[in-house]
Amino acid sequence: MMIRELRETVCRLHAELVRYGLVAWTAGNVSGRVPGEDLFVIKPSGVSYDDLTPESIVVCDLDGVVVEGTLSPSSDTAAHAYVYRYMPEVNGVVHTHSTYASAWAARGEAIPCVLTAMADEFGGEIPVGPFALIGGDDIGKGVVETLSGHRSPAVLMRNHGVFTVGDSPRSAVKAAVMCEDVARTVHVARQLGDPLPIAPEDIDRLHHRYQHVYGQRSHL
Ligand SMILES: [Zn+2]
User: Fold this and answer.
1) Which of 48, 152, 167, 189 is the most exposed place for a label (fewest CB within 10 A)?
2) Distance, CA of 50 to CA of 38 (rounded, Å)
């Protein structure tokens, strides 16, 4: 039952990647940890977003081995699995090649925290992770090493694209949407001058307020 609901959620969240213009063709994926199990669900490889169904979403163990599903999992499965193995607080992972964020990744440049929305969501700059080839644990390792001890739920993997994490698949998707949004705005700001920094103590205050005070209380 729990896996079925999670498959539905993760299937539906892929439509958000399309809606927010974060993906071309099939290059982007969402996964979600199965609560209380050493399992996660992830997009099947090479299936177009319009053709995704809850049944097509693949169930894997934390080594990335398929335990349920008829299709091959995303080619990024090893990276997602590594994140779930080493970041127990993470319940959702998203990967995209969204345009503006990947342009920063192509330069190997962190996105500086020059917008209050960035302080809110990321608590500072969006960091750059190492160059890593797909397959094996290198990408996952780079994501975990860069995000561990960092407030940002997003990392720009050098010459590649974005990985985001969250306490749910939905919050990881939100971070991917916000990452592309601020990547675009800071890029545009750069065209006509140097964006003004925000003082670290103000970043701290904004981040704290957004994470703990903003929005509806969870019991509502
Ligand atoms: Zn990729």
Assistant:
1) 48
2) 29
**DSSP bridge pairs for 30:** 94
Per-residue pLDDT reduced to its tens digit, 72-84: 999 999 999 999 9
Q: Could you tell me the distance, in angstroms and rounded to a whole number, from the CA of residue 29 to the centre of ligand 1?
A: 9
**Distance from the alpha carbon of residue 126 to the mean position of ligand 1, in angstroms:** 17
Task: Please give the model's pTM, rounded to 2 decimal places.
Answer: 0.95
Of the residues 82, 100, 120, 181, which is catalytic? Answer: 120
Is 20 known to be catalytic?
no
Residue type, 174: K
